[in-house]
What does this fold into?
Amino acid sequence: MSQDMLALLIKSLGETVYMVTVSMVIATVIGVPLGVLLVTTAKNQILECIVFNRVLAAVVNTVRSIPFIILMVAIIPLTRIIVGSSIGTAAAMVPLTIAAIPFIGRQVETSLKEVEYGVIEAALAMGASPFQIIWHVLLPEAVAGIISQLTTVVIALVGSSAMAGAIGGGGLGDLAIRYGYQRFRPEVMLATVIVLVVLVQIVQFAGNFAAKKLNKK
Amino acid sequence: MIKLSHIEKTYDSAAGPVMALKGIDLEIKRGEIYGIIGLSGAGKSTLIRCINMLERPTAGKVIVAGEELTALSNKELRRARKNIGMIFQHFNLLSSATVYDNIAFPLRLAGVDAAGIKAKVEPLLELVGLEDKAHQYPAQLSGGQKQRVGIARALASDPKVLLCDEATSALDPQTTKAILELIKDINHKLQLTVVVITHEMQVIKEICDKVAVIEHGVIAEQGTVLEVFTNPQQPITKEFISVVISNELPSAFRQAEISPTPLPGSQLLVRLTFIGDSADDPVIAGLIRNFQIEVSILFGNLDHIKLTPYGRMIIGITGEQAEIDKALAYLSSKELKTEVIGYVTRHARIAD
It folds into this structure.
């Protein structure tokens, strides 16, 4: 592989990492509270509000049922409003983030549901407010599970980001399609796949390590 | 300290409303250890949760430490709950926090600073005997140790009342005994009012001053533990008591026919119950010395209900009927409970 190709590979890796990281950070900031709301507003929970819970769940399900490639195209007007353009790496981050938010919400919900109600009840008995319960009980108790779930989301986002090439978003997926597939250069394809495999391994390893450290059960 | 007046609690279920509590009246005085016993589903768990309003009663008043909890807003209720500690069957500790941080938890909720927390947590660790476990996580502890953490945590906010929800039901008998000792000790040292929910009469017998037996959402019987144990009125109470204090005849007599009138060669079985100081009275010696009868002791047991000695004995009396009658009159003049079981022939005993 030529020097140019290697430089391109590194640049693409950088784009993928950038897209996934930014999307992930924004989606986590919104998705974790979303997961908290999905759990705490359900029946017999500390912020019970069944109508709100149903509406929220319906919205989450709707976004989650749209295939990423369609979502990406469908929200182009929105993307244009947010980043001022519908093509490029920044433009690809909008649909990535929007797809990741409900995904994270559901994953966090699953982790939070595993926190035993007895622990919440104990905190209520001590006079904890709903916010204190979320902050001091639910999130710390579920943190190891949440980290595992977020790892899964990161890996899924790496996969989705490969489609970003469709709107000129760049990244490893784009590189593999344009050079490896369309220009018949199997060595580029192979190199990209290897980089992706290594990237996913590193993410998974880091996620497992952090989850294990945080799990005191 | 705690006053429940006419508490009702109704749940909505798929099959229609279910009435878990049907008008409970209860008064618990300061410093008492009050036991509430019932089978599962009797409503005792709901009842204890009404005391700190984890369950809001459908009707009735809850007054704790002079404050009517049923009239408070959610915010005021959260403050009032700091007066009421609670421990649970499954401990309900934070698995992600150390022993120290678990005990510190209610203090952190209340906004106490690190120095204040340290000053509070360290004596509590000592009180429950876990000084060396401060930096371990609950997963590394035994059940008894976890409950000790639960107790220390419940005491951290200096409550006036401690609620124990089946606190020893998940523990083995030795650990149960140790935890009950600790609760008794705390009650004594801190003059804490304790409410104990249990399905085990042993727990009531061990530490409670008073007991209420709850069945189908109503209090079937209540009184001092001594009264209820020695003179149970309701079938449910008798059943609970029979678990810890067997009222069965010694095995040799179980098959024998019991006759209300004397038979040739029969002896009269009498059950004697001694409570408190009367356990020291030499009644049997008195019987033998004063009357022309023979007394054989068929069963004897001395137990304690909390701190009161409680002795039970079954004796067999043989002799002239007139002497037996005099002996019975003598027994009833003493401060003990005499219950005539009936006449049993020796023959029946041999056949058995």
